[in-house]
Amino acid sequence: MARGLTRREFGAGVLGLAAFTGAGMRVSFAQSAKYKLRYGTAFPADHPGVARIQEAAKAIATETNGTVDLQVYPNSQLGSEPDMFSQTRSGALDFMSTSGVNQTVVPVGGINAVAFAFEDYSKVWAAMDGELGNHVREQFGKAGLYVFPKMLDNGYRNITSSAKPVNGPEDLKGFKIRVPGNQLWVTMFKALGAAPTPINFGELYAALQTHVVDGQENPLALISSAKLYEVQKYIALSGHMWDGHHIFTNGKKWAAMPEEIKAVISKRLTEAAVRERADIVALNDKLVETLTAAGAVFNKPEKKPFRDVLSSAGYYTEWKSKFGEEPWALLEKYAGKL
């Protein structure tokens, strides 16, 4: 130990040197990288879907000796999800993750979001890591996109409201609810008697605060990070849709990369997705406690009444026709008869 330094000071110096060295290595990697790649996402910076991809990016840089520098841009810094999806299709953006907007190119890409399809995560991952997911990935491949084999978890979506809790379909009659601009959402809530209103996520807090809409629906992680609980007292754990993010890249650009580079990127993004899934489950359990302490009131409505109304309204028949017999049969293989 250096004379004149306490044990604590010496330890701090070692840690500081390690941090400096690590930072220097990262800068060196970035400067010397042959492949400088960008990954765009709408997830907030503190979302597990960002943290795990950033972790993967560091591992990729290390494992490729700095040949690959993957920069991660959260919070829609590179544009809206439709914008980033278009950029990835054209090859202007290297990677991005999203769910619903991809239906504009590959309609079956949104089949995982059929209302009340998946009872729990065991069925979700059996389907999306299995034959249903393979079918969807194959269709994206035909559209010029490569989709990585494991999806990120965005979570089950839940309904929030300001005036009263949503306990059943009858509470949605005339209920003005913000939805993404996606027909799966619009047709579902119309069939339940609500008034679905597409609003950009960035404008949602103000729309709820000024009562432009009565409520909204999102996974708990986004309800928390966007502080929607400040303007929505009630949270119904409806779990009406499971929402996941595929990780996309341009098919031609991916095919042109060396096999050893593709193997490292694929390995690390796959690991990131699996770890992120566990993060979301743990986060959801914690958020119920955290949001309750913040004043939110939770309830857990029965799902069968909602499914019965949707079935009577022809929702499932309509989407079976739109998606087609083959993918619908694969969906029901895991979800059961809809």
TrEMBL record:
Species for this entry: Alsobacter soli
Protein name according to UniProt: ABC transporter substrate-binding protein
Superkingdom in the source lineage: Bacteria
Transport keyword on record: yes
UniProt keywords, alphabetically: Signal, Transport
GO cellular component, as recorded: outer membrane-bounded periplasmic space
Gene Ontology BP, a term: transmembrane transport
Principal location class: other
Location within or outside the cell: Cell envelope
Family under the similarity heading: Belongs to the bacterial solute-binding protein 7 family.
